[in-house]
Amino acid sequence: MERITASELRALQETEPVALLDVRTAAEFESAHIPGAIRVGWDELRGDSATVAALLPDHAVVICRSGARAERACHALAADGRHDLRFLEGGVVAWERAGGTLQRGRERWDLERQVRLVAGSLVVAGVAGSLVWPPALVLAGAIGGGLAFAATTNTCAMGMLLAKLPYNRASCEPPRITERFAHLAGQVGDA
């Protein structure tokens, strides 16, 4: 597994077809994604990484918003024998900054923004509640501890829970993972 920068990916796409696997939520993908990317959310991938590993063409690039979920996805796929995969450093954010094209749809909040809203709201509620009932301050401390843990482990339990909400589901997407890869047959050769 290796990193690839947005400018390296753009240059590579000019010389050869590259399979792109987007591991963001359906809502994030619908808002904006790199054209031609296949979406298999991080939760789905964890549940069926062997299928995804078998379907991905050689030397595919895994992408997410910032690179963190893509890197974790590469590790999960490496456990299924896929050591040839790369992840986009800085994710879709870096891609757009580098001048890469995005296909845009209905604008929705990305998962990281949703986490900031919920965590911030819970901290405010804990602090405000402590004015009436002092033990409520523990809520603010627990959220702070959870955020610190999320940062040090590069995981986010709150994000994983929010990803399951209906808001973060796709409006129309093939239900089975194998159907999402069907258009790749013959387009992306083995490198």
Keywords:
191 residues; alpha/beta; Oxidized Rhodanese, domain 1; 5-stranded parallel β-sheet; two-stranded antiparallel sheet; 9% strand
Percent in strands: 5-15%
The CATH topology annotation of the largest domain reads as Oxidized Rhodanese, domain 1
Number of helices: 10
Residues in helix, %: 40-55%
Q: What is the level-2 CATH architecture name of the largest domain?
A: 3-Layer(aba) Sandwich
Major β-sheet annotation: 5 strands, parallel
Strand order of the largest sheet: 1-6-5-2-4
Order of helices and strands: EHEHEEHHEHEHEHHHH
| CATH class descriptor name of the largest domain | Alpha Beta
List the helices and strands and how they pair.
Layout: E1 2-4, H1 6-15, E2 20-22, H2 26-31, E3 32-33, E4 38-39, H3 42-47, H4 49-55, E5 61-63, H5 68-78, E6 86-88, H6 91-97, E7 103-104, H7 111-130, H8 137-153, H9 157-162, H10 177-180
Parallel strand pairs: 1-6, 2-4, 2-5, 5-6
Antiparallel strand pairs: 3-7
Helix pairs in contact: 7-8
Explained architecture:
The protein is of the alpha/beta class and 191 residues long. It has two domains: 2-106 and 171-184, Oxidized Rhodanese, domain 1 (3-Layer(aba) Sandwich), CATH 3.40.250.10; 111-162, no CATH class. Helices cover 49% and strands 9% of the residues. The protein has a five-stranded parallel β-sheet. Strands 3-7 form a two-stranded antiparallel ribbon. Strand 5, helix 5 (68-78) and strand 6 form a beta-alpha-beta unit. The longest helix has 20 residues, at 111-130. The two termini are 15 Å apart. 30% of the residues are buried.
